[in-house]
Amino acid sequence: RARNNYGTDFVNWSDLSEETIGSLIKRPKGGEATVRAIIDAARKAAAEAHSPAPPDPDPRTAASDLIACLPESDRIMLASRRWSRPPLSQEETAAQLATHGVWVNRHQPRSEARFAELRAEPRFGIVADQAERLRRLLGPVTTEAHITEAISTLGIDADQATADMLVHLAGPYISDGPWL
């Protein structure tokens, strides 16, 4: 909400320098939780700016970290509705999330948007590179056996969610009998 409500007026942290907590709360749709989110984001940005750059992670760690950055509901949503081959139905996903199919329908685009936003972060560029290498190994049409072999060839001893995410980013591949 903070990004949507304040993003056009405050592009850089310095744009907030003349603002007070009270002035931010008085803005349309501004509330205590939104201002708290801005403060938390500012603290995180300041900490990252003053900390030494971490070494580039290996592709497996970066892919796992990307998934770990998602809230649990987004991980379940994406794993079952986007990365799974074939995707689970809304009702099956809703059962995993202990909610209703309508909630899944309404929140899936948000989960996908959060995932796209995270993938765009520079620290996860290596994941896109790995997906591109996987795409070249798999080609336009493949089989599950070839996917398993290609994941192994890339040296990714990945758990199922990580492997499914990379295959989705490489494709996406849609199940059609034995072929994807």
Q: Which structural traits does this protein have?
A:
single chain, mainly alpha, 180 residues
Describe this structure in words.
It is a single chain. The protein is mainly alpha-helical. Helix content is 63%, strand content 0%. The model has no long low-confidence stretch (mean pLDDT 85).
Number of helices: 10
Beta-strand percent range: under 5%
Low-confidence stretches: none
Helix percent reads: 55-70%
Return the string of H and E elements: HHHHHHHHHH
Report mean pLDDT, rounded to a whole number.
Answer: 85
Count every beta strand, where a strand is a DSSP E run of 2 or more residues. 0
The biggest beta sheet, please? none
Radius of gyration: 20 Å
What gross morphology would you assign? globular
Query: Structural class from helices and strands?
Result: mainly alpha
Distance linking N and C termini: 38 Å
SSE topology:
Blueprint: H1 2-6, H2 21-26, H3 32-50, H4 59-68, H5 72-83, H6 90-97, H7 101-119, H8 125-138, H9 144-153, H10 160-170
Helix pairs in contact: 4-10, 5-6, 5-7, 6-7, 8-10
Question: Briefly, what is this?
Answer:
The protein is mainly alpha-helical.
